[in-house]
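Exercise 7. Given the components listed, write out the predicted structure of the assembled complex. Treat all entries as one system.
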Amino acid sequence: MKPNHPITRRQSLKKIARISASLAGAALGVSPLLSHSLARASSTAGKGFVVEGIGSKEGYKIKELTRKVFDAAGGIGKFVSKGDVVVIKPNISWARRPELAATTNPEVVEAVIELCLDAGAKKVRIADHTIHDARRCFALTGVGLVAKRTGADLVFPRSSLMKRMKLHGHRLDVWPVFVPLVEADKVISLPVAKVHGLSTLTLGMKNWIGGVGGRRSALHQDIHQSIVDLAQFFNPTITLIDATRIMITNGPSGGSPSDVAVKNTLILSNDQVAADAKAAGLFGYDPGKIGFIRLGQKWGLGTYESQKLIQQRVML
Amino acid sequence: MRARQLVWIRRISQTFFLGLFLFLLVESRLPEDAYLQYSLVFSSDPDLRLSHPVTFFFQLDPLIWLSSLLSGHRLIHGFWWALGLLLATLFLGRIFCGFICPLGTVHHIISWVKPSLKGNRMIEANQKTPGHRIKYLLLIMLLVGAVLGLNLAGLIDPISLFFRSMALAILPAIGTGLKELFDVMAASDIKVLNHMSYAGEILVSPVFGYGYPAYKTAWFIGLIFLVILFLNRIRPRFWCRILCPLGALLGVFSRFSVLRLEKDQAKCTDCKLCSRRCQGAASPMPSQNWENAECLLCFNCFDACPEEALSFRFRWSPKSNTWPDMGRRAVLGGLVVGISLPLFAKLDGHAHHVSDPRLIRPPGALPEKNFLQLCQRCGLCMKACPTNAINPTLAEAGMAGFWTPHLIMTQGYCEYTCTLCSSVCPTGAISEISAKEKIERPIKIGVAYVDRGRCLPWSGNGPCIVCQELCPTSPKAIYLRKEVVPGPDHAPMPANVPYVDLKGCVGCGICENKCPVRGRPAIRVIAAGESRSLENQILLTGSVS
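Answer.
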């Protein structure tokens, strides 16, 4: 595989100049990045829904499936309004190629960005505080290319974008937070579904461990409550779990195609707990037996009891 | 050609090559917008590479080529650049020193901006002294040492020295300083400062590195560099005249130079302006014998002479130039030191028998003996490493391995699919590998072991498993078992405790790096088990030598 560098030095210099100009503007008080407050609609208002989209036909288009799933939930326009700044939080923690299912499928990321732009979003950002080196994660997971194709901003996790904030959690109080994830009009959580040695699974709520900095490795000492505290703090507008490929063993890093199962499934919900519960079913787990799902319901983030939710299924 | 024009051509060339050197230095890291065409049919993990020829100056350097050849018996990649330079030097003299060498240009600029001496004292300082022979001593020492298997050329080779000093000391010093400033601004509650911090980082990080790398003991490298720069206060281009072994090598090769300083004694009024501006103390005055091997071809004397008594001309005569004045002592001294140093290198405990557990070499590194014969300590692998894991050694590799690269896992870790360091090594001391090779062979750089007394679950201090979560191999070399450990109230407590499978572990060190036990982590990597060595092994393997 030859590396591909279609961006020339001149272009990247221009890009830097453009970004810094816009930031200089930002410094004067017309921020495109940071001026939006936390004022976004509470996602738990009204009744929760879960949409499960399954691509059952050979050669189905992921983009089409994504659109169908959103349509079943009332269309992207219900979540993203014209002029919104949308931030997407994929799970691109590992510098791994997409087919190993350690990271969110770039085709799903691309589909969601296009939907947001169609809905009139002013700006779409992709932000994740990766575990591996961010440059390598961006390149290998394919998200770097998606950002280039769609014109979305891929926010580099710089230390100046980490800011200590009060999480108001039951376990976590003050923690460094990756700022772009909270300073946006709409937040879309876009995790991949994987197994995990300690928390059993890593799904939508656990995606938010990638939203903070600091001594993240210490969170594992009380992983379930930490996950719930973070999910409660970030409170995404919607969660779309990418289960097109899921990691069924050796998670969360994987590394071998044999660790991966193809499920061709997307799960969309405005309820983080419900989305995770639904995805847990794909692995054959009883959601009530997974710590963070149970705690999520206990602390009122959502519900895993299916009768309390509007459930839909889309086949393609 | 007129003298003025020649001087300006020299200045433009110096600026260009210094600029090119600094540009390649800055580009010796992954760019922020590196990306690959992803495809669902990747058969293996793709390799990220740098898009600029960052090893160019190392390929151009004949001392690096010769010392690698004599010591490691290996022709380095792109050596024909160096060969071409030697051929050019043979007929044109030390044009590299005057026109190309970036370190020489820095010395030149310093000597020019703030001349160390004035008037007659400068003329005196620009006379040849026996001290000039030191560089020949150093050159002979390096080459003889290299023949006997001890390659120390990189320690004082100007390209290696300049790159190492800039990459490991000067850039990180400025970069981390700026980062501290940005962090203060980012932590502030004033919005404008936050934005300025972010904008500042966007501008600065492509130059100083995205993670603001800092290197262990780099202050020492920086200090030596500053001392070398300070020497210009004693004499202009002190380093080039007295110490530079590459300058000595090129001086020897300028034997047949046809570009000669022609002197017209009749026109000379003995104003000594030429001597005052001479960069190399090469005796340009018509009353003296021009020292062809000392001349840096700066053309200052030509330019300075008001009487047109001096000129540089091409003279195609079979007569060769005077042999450089090395002096018998410098030659003998070089021989003696060159022969004794390889013996001294063995007086280092058992450094050459028993590997230090901390001596974790980059993936793809040759077996230790061959590695040391080729490594130029240039710091390119350290600069390129995206996690800042690769740092210079002090004593870990013995005297022969001073400032060679090793991985410090508390600083960074070796990313499982990354092979960047192997692709930038100028001499092949780290041979180029692909991610596929690295994973499938696998190339191990060491193995991890658990320190149960410190490990949280093993010591009954609560759940953790971070090492297992981050272990990148498939299947994971760090696996969990449910065991009963003594809990805090002396009651038996069930816990998931980590074990290391020595066969699967590649020693990447991400476990050590991310272990929540700070300071001395509860899981650590040692070099034993590295695949480049037959001896430094733990397990009984199939093929025993």
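Discussion: DSSP finds eight helices and twelve strands in chain A. Chain A has a mean pLDDT of 86.
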